[in-house]
Every structure is written in C-alpha cells, then in structure tokens.
Design brief:
Elements (H helix, E strand, L loop, with lengths): L6 H4 L6 E5 L6 E10 L15 E7 L7 E8 L8 E11 L9 E7 L1
Antiparallel strand pairs: 1-2, 1-4, 2-3, 3-6, 4-5, 5-6
C-alpha cells in the first residue's frame, strides 16, 4: 500500500492530526506541518510515476522517540476515508531554529 501513497494524499491533511502507534511507546499525536515534493530524487529507471516527497510532522509535547517504525493513522478528509499506513518509518529531525518545545519528524516517500 505504501507504494500507492502520493503527496496528494497528504495535502488535504495539512494542519490536521494523525496518530502514530509504535509498540511499546504510547500513541503519539503528530500534526501534518508541510508536504514537500522532491522530483530530483526520482529514479529515472523505475516505471512508477510517483514524485518522491517528504511529509513534515510536529509532535507536542516533546517525546523521546527518534526513529521508529509503526502504524500511522491518517484522519478522514472531505474527499477520502481514514487510512492506516502499516510499517511506516518516521525519522526525527532537529529543531533547527524552530520552537524547542516541540519534536519534529519527517516521513520520506521515495
């Protein structure tokens, strides 16, 4: 299923909250902060037309999670039903000038 996900699936979710479940950690609420396409990362030898993209996520409050594989529950939008993404890899990023009261993550789709 992950190979069928594209940036358009996340665009309606900007500003909304999704939930990450990665045992043994408690469920973590993540706000979809940004969706950035990265067309230069596309493999020219693949038949897939999906443009690689990154979803930037913000967690409040701070969390000890760094890199984790788990299940991400996406909320329903006006045009789509709720989705559950299995075996999703989310990586922590530094605050880099942003508010240190939050944790920042990215979800990369190549």
């Amino acid at each position: 299923m992950l190979d069928k996900i594209c940036s358009d699936d996340f665009m309606p979710l900007l500003g909304q909250t999704c939930y990450l479940h990665a045992a043994p950690y408690p469920e973590l609420a993540l706000q979809v902060h940004a969706v950035r396409q990265n067309p230069r990362a596309q493999n020219p030898y693949l038949q897939d037309n999906r443009v690689p993209f990154i979803v930037e996520l913000t967690a409040d409050p701070l969390t000890p999670l760094v890199d984790v594989v788990g299940q991400l529950r996406l909320p329903a939008s006006a045009s789509t039903a709720q989705k559950i993404l299995e075996d999703i890899n989310i990586s922590r990023t530094g605050a880099m000038g942003r508010d240190n009261q939050f944790s920042y993550f990215q979800l990369i789709f190549n």
